[in-house]
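*** Residues and shapes ***
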Amino acid sequence: MTDPAAMYENLREEMGTVLIGNEAIIEQLTVALLSNGHVLLEGVPGVAKTTMANLFARASGLDYNRIQMTPDVLPADVTGTHVYHDQTGEFSLQRGPIFANFVVADEINRATPKTQSALLEAMQERTATIEGQTLDLPEPFIVVATQNPIEMEGTFELPEAQRDRFLFKLVVDLPTREDESALLDRFDSAPELGPEAIDQVVTPTGILEARQVVSNVHVDERVKGYILDLVDATRNHGDIAHGTSPRASLALLDAAKARAAIHGRDYAIPDDAKTLVRPTFTHRLVLSTDAELSGVTAEDALEEIMATVQPPGSDAERERESAVSDGGRSRMGE
């Protein structure tokens, strides 16, 4: 079977021939691919969101389609339709761009809610229905959607049900001065450098085999307990009206297993879950009205939760367990 750690290293090195920085994004895209999940990429224009997805698809050897979302895009433009041929008097199936291994929904929040919902079945069921006919999508299958957080006019915010279909929401930040300087130098010497320069270093079959390796990663009960503590904290936080669902619990579990595998381990550690809490939970939280009026963000609420819920093995957790144990002995002495 394909080694997930070797696969990740090959992807990282190959994408690094064009991309500078954003190694965390590459890692999390790999985790999403091995977790059979989808990704929402958010960032201001010009930070290479679409290019990054294209590079990843090419390096992975996946069939790639890009859908430019606009208000006039219809559901049939995504899934496909039946086309009538005058010469034969018959209809033939015309598959839409959703029938690819790697689908980029560019500027997804520019599409109408009806078109956005056309992605729901594909993302969740891995099928597409065209005029009553349900068809399987290819495997592996991943949707990477991009959105611009600063331009609100003419956009349609993703509803909670749509956001919950994404394993991760990843924020692509502006590069540091050092990274941008290296970027200028690289493209000054090779202006033609782009996705075409990327070689395939992984095969679709290898990805499916690596997923089998991930599925066998062991997760200790204490790590599962840490995930449940985090989930429970989102459901009982004063600023959060609706916390994460069981789908989020499973998403974090699967993502932690994939991260462990790409780092060469057959067991997950608390840091695997802790590292991926933010991209897994942030977009799923629904704040209370009072919190929104007070300027509290989902990131703020999650940061408070992360500071409160300690992973097993941390100093704070050991102190808490010691205090509970001492308290129990004191009560027994009484």
